[in-house]
Amino acid sequence: MTTEAIAPPKTKSQALRSFHAADFPALTGREEEWRFTPLKRLHGLDRMSAGDVSGEAAHWPAIGHGALPEGVTVTGIGRDDARIGSVLTPFDRISALAFESFETATLVRIAPEATPAEPVVLKVDGGLSGTPTFGHTFVEVGTFAEATLVLEQTGYATLADNVEIAVADGGRLTLVTVTDWAADAVQAQHVKVRLGRDARILHVQVTLGGNLVRQFTSVDYTGRGGEAELYGLYFADGEQHLEHRLLVDHSVPDCTSYVGYRGALQGDGAHTVWVGDVLIQDQATGTSTYEVNRNLLLSDGARADSVPNLEIETGEIVGAGHASATGRFDDEQLFYLMARGIPEAEARKLVVRGFFAELLGKIPVEELRERLGAAIEQRLEKAGA
Prior knowledge:
This protein has about 375 residues and is mainly β. The protein folds into two domains: about 20-330, no CATH class; about 330-385, no CATH class. The chain contains four helices and 17 strands. The longest helix is centred in the last third of the chain and has 17 residues, at about 345-360. Belongs to the iron-sulfur cluster assembly SufBD family. It comes from Catellatospora bangladeshensis. InterPro entries: Fe-S_cluster_assembly_SufBD, SUF_FeS_clus_asmbl_SufBD_core, SUF_FeS_clus_asmbl_SufBD_sf, SUF_FeS_clus_asmbl_SufD.
């Protein structure tokens, strides 16, 4: 791991990278990467430096877990572990601050060729402290291993954290991340995935809770045959700000990616942001990629910003495309259901259930699917849908 700043690459999609927050200029909110984010609601994370962080504040509570399947271990590792920083080099100020400020990282290791039948479920409870907190998680999936991992965050926190995920050659990981913070919580997170040859990740990112949640997910490849499927489900209520940014960096031939995010919004002041960037470098021949974002506005006063981007440096690809749509209820769908005797309120619920059904169906844990479906139902009932 180097501590030197890395020179900016030639593309707009990748800016300065460094492990030091001081290498990034102070945020003003006018930057392209931050223009949608209400900095005043970050509880000071945007203004802090590594020197402002005390040892106590830099400690993230350990992830609790019960019995683990064979071939899976969860341990704490120090900052000097060679794996730390091997996948993710921060490319924004808060991510770098989190990297400098955590004390102990959580290592989730799936041994080579391990295929645990049961999902690994790890939960973090943020507690009640409003002190800025910093975390780091490293997920290591061994060669030809195959596993399902659920990372769930609840409670109250002001958190900046990084998650590094290394999937070795032939490895398969189904990752479900659930962000269901308390109403006043704030989080800025970067999840970085690196895929080996013929490795695959299916990531379902669910974001429901928190006052302001900003999540950045990025993927790169180290060998041919890598596959990334990235799905997202988010529901902004009241004055929540939920922001999702993605960067899929195709730098290796014959790899694929698919990004599909869906969000619902209700309440005056609810705001969601989705920015999807796919970079196909000149050597990434044979790439196949597609990204799509859909947003459903359930009430007046809600706002959804959706920005898909493609940067293509070679014409020798299988295919590349993107789509984005934001709209209200389909009157024809409502009419169809109501014409068959279904009351309007119940018809609206059925439309929202159908909107999210495909993504919920990709979560391989039945109990979690049912719980998330119930949480969405509660939000709809709250709004009188």
